[in-house]
Amino acid sequence: QLQLVESGGGLVQPGGSLRLSCTASGFTSDYYVLGWFRQAPGKEREGVSCISGSGGSTYYSDSVKGRFTISRDNAKNTVYLQMNSLQPEDTAVYSCAADRPFMATVQRMCVKGDFGNWGQGTQVTVSS
């Protein structure tokens, strides 16, 4: 059974950093696109960042470009999201997702949210 478990969320002051981790089990993640999504209360889910199976292709939403970095370690079946210069508007539940690309681009999957497997999410709160 495919499972995704996120960790690393918490409370951080504006300007601070956090690193989220998502560990996959029940499948070999090398062939899967992995992504991070977030949803704040009253807002639609946003595709924050996604990465191809090899790690060679990445996508970032405009709202996090230059501040967040996605990476993956296929040996550990884990994807990371390094978040720097956090701002209150980054407050949300962050979830990871996984799916095979089926000929779609990483960007398309991230923008559309075309993932069939989701984690439970981890809360990130940016506040002074």
What does this structure look like?
With 128 residues, the chain is mainly beta. It has one helix and eleven strands, in the order E-E-E-E-E-E-E-E-E-H-E-E. It has one helix at residues 106-112; strands at residues 3-7, 10-12, 18-25, 33-39, 46-51, 58-60, 68-73, 78-83, 92-99, 117-118, 122-126. Strands 2, 4, 5, 6, 9, 10 and 11 form a seven-stranded mixed sheet that branches. Strand 4 and strand 5 form a beta hairpin. The model has no long low-confidence stretch (mean pLDDT 95).
Which short descriptors sum up this protein?
mainly beta, four-stranded antiparallel sheet, seven-stranded mixed sheet
Write a concise synopsis of the structure shown.
This protein has 128 residues and is mostly beta strands.
Unreliable stretches: none
Count every helix, treating DSSP H or I runs of 4 or more residues as helices: 1
How many DSSP-defined strands?
A: 11
Distance between the termini: 40 Å
Q: What amount of the residues lies in strands?
A: over 45%
What profile does the largest beta sheet have? 7 strands, mixed
- Percent helix, as a range, is under 10%
Mean pLDDT: 95
**Order of helix and strand elements from N to C terminus:** EEEEEEEEEHEE
Radius of gyration: 13 Å
Write down the overall geometry. globular
Label the structural class: mainly beta
List the helices and strands and how they pair.
Elements: E1 3-7, E2 10-12, E3 18-25, E4 33-39, E5 46-51, E6 58-60, E7 68-73, E8 78-83, E9 92-99, H1 106-112, E10 117-118, E11 122-126
Parallel strand pairs: 2-11
Antiparallel strand pairs: 1-3, 3-8, 4-5, 4-9, 5-6, 7-8, 9-10, 9-11
